[in-house]
Design brief:
By secondary structure, the chain is an alpha+beta fold. The chain has helices at residues 79-85, 97-119, and strands at 10-22, 34-44, 49-59, 65-77, 93-95, 142-144. It has one domain: SecB-like (Bacterial Protein-export protein SecB), CATH 3.10.420.
């Protein structure tokens, strides 16, 4: 894309908790835990929507996950701005890096809220999704053919 600094207007169309599981037998009280991250983007060209899915697996080193959560946010792009994402003379859609980061951060924040709501008043509420550099999960270019 030539101009990645153009304003792209969007909104959240849908939020979905696609996966949530607590596996108590895999949890080891008092042991350090780590988080495995996945971030995926999808597109619905017909409805001018971008889909961002964040998956987190909490687990102890060399162990199976004891808490799994996946949240997806569906963002609609204002029709007038959809054309700014399209590569000229092609069907290819390219997200500006800043927009991809912003949508990812909104999805991560949504995951934090869902995690809190699902684990509140349980022993698993101690596992808070920490701040991290979302850009480390994004590919250099997010594009769709």
């Amino acid at each position: 894309m030539e101009n990645t600094n153009e304003l792209i207007s969007f909104g959240i169309n849908q939020i979905a908790t696609e996966q949530f599981a607590i596996i108590p037998e895999a949890h080891k009280i008092g042991e350090a835990a780590q988080i495995q991250h996945e971030l995926n983007f999808g597109i619905d060209k017909e409805n001018k929507r971008i889909y961002v899915r964040k998956l987190a697996r909490f687990q102890h080193p060399d162990s199976s996950p004891f808490l799994i959560i996946a949240v997806a946010c569906h963002f609609f792009i204002v029709s007038e701005d959809w054309a700014k994402l399209q590569v000229p003379d092609s069907e290819r859609i390219v997200l500006p890096k800043d927009l991809g980061v912003h949508l990812a951060m909104l999805t991560v924040g949504t995951l934090r809220g869902v995690l809190h709501a699902k684990t509140e008043n349980t022993p698993f509420s101690q596992y808070i999704f920490p701040p991290f550099d979302v850009t480390s999960l994004l590919p250099e270019i997010v594009s769709f053919d």
